[in-house]
């Protein structure tokens, strides 16, 4: 494996980790609104909206760089320099490493969300309330979606790898 390929794989794995962590940013911003105790003024709401938009824009730019512009990052940070050898002796293909990374990330997402979902679900069932009246409904739905997302990553890792590789070669 070439040094360049190694860095590309590592940066894409970091980009995937950032991408999947990105989905928890938006619910966290909206949960901040609920802690205001009902008295929210326009200035606080505006500041919260600007913060959310700025965070989303920055994360999208960073994720795009890490997933699709890895060569540019390697060039700007001079990651290939200071290596005496041009190759690393590995016989594994880069797509295989990327597929394994997607599977591991999917498993981590699933493992992270399953306990929270089960805890919220048990709490919901014990309270015997309607779903619309339960105060943690948003988090219950959020963890359920994360479980489905983790499962889809586990079962469709090759498709995600093909998409990332295709987009990387087009850019």
From TrEMBL:
Chain ranges passing through the membrane: 9-30, 42-67, 88-111, 139-157
Keywords: Membrane, Transmembrane, Transmembrane helix
Protein name: DUF2975 domain-containing protein
Protein source organism: Flavobacterium microcysteis
């Amino acid at each position: 494996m070439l040094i360049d390929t190694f860095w590309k794989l590592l940066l894409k794995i970091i980009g995937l980790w950032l991408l999947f962590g990105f989905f928890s940013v938006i619910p966290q911003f909206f949960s901040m609104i609920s802690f205001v105790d009902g008295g929210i003024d326009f200035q606080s709401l505006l500041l919260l909206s600007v913060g959310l938009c700025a965070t989303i824009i920055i994360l999208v730019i960073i994720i795009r760089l890490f997933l699709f512009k890895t060569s540019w990052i390697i060039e700007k940070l001079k990651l290939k320099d200071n290596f005496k050898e041009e190759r690393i002796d590995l016989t594994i293909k880069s797509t295989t490493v990327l597929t394994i990374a997607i599977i591991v990330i999917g498993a981590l997402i699933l493992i992270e969300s399953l306990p929270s979902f089960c805890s919220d679900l048990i709490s919901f069932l014990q309270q015997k309330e309607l779903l619309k009246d339960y105060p943690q409904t948003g988090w219950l739905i959020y963890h359920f979606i994360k479980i489905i997302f983790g499962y889809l990553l586990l079962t469709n890792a090759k498709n995600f790898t093909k998409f990332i590789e295709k987009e990387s070669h087009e850019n």
